[in-house]
Amino acid sequence: MDEVDLVFGNVDKPRLVQQIVEWRGEHAVPCAIGDEADYISPRIGRTRAMVKIQEGCNQVCAYCIVPKVRGRERSIPTEALVGEIQLLAAKGYKEVVLTGTQLGSYGFDLVGASLGLLIATILSRCNIERLRVSSLQPREITDDLLALWSDKRLCPHFHMPLQSGSNSILRMMRRRYTAEDYVETVKRIRERIPQASITADVIVGFPGETDADFRATYELCESIGFADLHMFPYSMRPGTSAAYYDDQLEFPAKSERMHALLNLGKSMANQFRQGSLGTVRSVLWESQIADEGAIQWTGLTDNYIRVKSKSNLPLLNVIAPAMLASLDVEGTVRAEIV
């Protein structure tokens, strides 16, 4: 394509500026000066840092192009991650979010490493005030892993992709769990960590999804009562197995199902927030705006509820307890600093 000058792989992102400069024949790099440590120093007001612990995916789900564009799974050594998190804490970050394509597979390619051991090591060697795990598969959440949440620095929030509540669709998607597995994991989390929030992803309109399949998804989501739900209409990705499946759904059917699930997701989110009113949660206050002569702060609770509060206290980048007081018509939780 004449419009394309360069193509970069995902692993080349850290050298993007350098490679463009080399291609253009420039000598100065005005936007990349300073020593290496400066590259991860926080901007003013930055409170949370995303730390990638692994890259790639070996699961090859039928709808997903990630394995082709990001390659096979590979883990970042534990010592490198501990060093990065220690540096981030020293730079002023209050929360670190562990990210990756398949977090539960972390360490399979390293000697004596696993996600549980990594989390335990970070908690024992780093003074970061909060640690959050971004996403896990149902079968990866074991009793041993959940036991780590006895440390209050681990945020009680679990994001588990569901994708479908129909076992036949899950098999077609090549997911590695059943609807029953998913429900059992939710039960295990809630028994161990009652106030944890559980959020999920759902794909609507996967090829061959019948009314009964969608109803199974809807009813499963409704019975679980997620704290939040992220929905996506199925979108064909050339090069994936699902692109060749028969019974591709037309847009009207996807739109109707998306609308139903969006309404359910909003209702469940409001119910979770309503049920949290009157409780005191730790909040990481992240930003402020002027509001009728007062300062209105916005922040995130440990269990992933976005809250707002009016206060003239200097709360930027501070973790402080707040009582969740009310829910407005827009679904925003108003909090009072304790």
Question: What does this 3D model show about the protein?
Answer:
This protein is of the alpha/beta class and 338 residues long. The chain has 3 domains: 45-155, Transcription Regulator spoIIAA (2-Layer Sandwich), CATH 3.30.750; 161-276, Transcription Regulator spoIIAA (2-Layer Sandwich); 280-337. Helix content is 31%, strand content 22%. The chain has helices at residues 16-24, 66-70, 78-90, 115-125, 143-147, 167-173, 179-192, 211-224, 251-276, and strands spanning 48-52, 54-55, 74-75, 95-99, 130-133, 157-159, 197-204, 228-233, 280-291, 294-301, 306-310, 318-327, 333-337. A hairpin with a 2-residue loop joins strand 9 and strand 10 (294-301). Helix 3 packs parallel to helix 4 and helix 8 runs parallel beside helix 9. The N and C termini lie far apart (59 Å). Its cofactor is [4Fe-4S] cluster. It comes from Geodia barretti (Barrett's horny sponge).
Protein topology:
Blueprint: H1 16-24, E1 48-52, E2 54-55, H2 66-70, E3 74-75, H3 78-90, E4 95-99, H4 115-125, E5 130-133, H5 143-147, E6 157-159, H6 167-173, H7 179-192, E7 197-204, H8 211-224, E8 228-233, H9 251-276, E9 280-291, E10 294-301, E11 306-310, E12 318-327, E13 333-337
Parallel strand pairs: 1-4, 4-5, 6-7, 7-8, 11-13
Antiparallel strand pairs: 2-3, 9-10, 9-12, 10-11, 12-13
Helix pairs in contact: 3-4, 8-9
CATH topology annotation of the largest domain: Transcription Regulator spoIIAA
**pLDDT < 50 stretches:** 29-45
Shape: globular
Q: Order of strands in the sheet with the most strands?
A: 9-10-11-13-12
The total domain count is: 3
Which architecture of the largest domain would the CATH scheme give at its second level?
Answer: 2-Layer Sandwich
**Helix fraction bin:** 25-40%
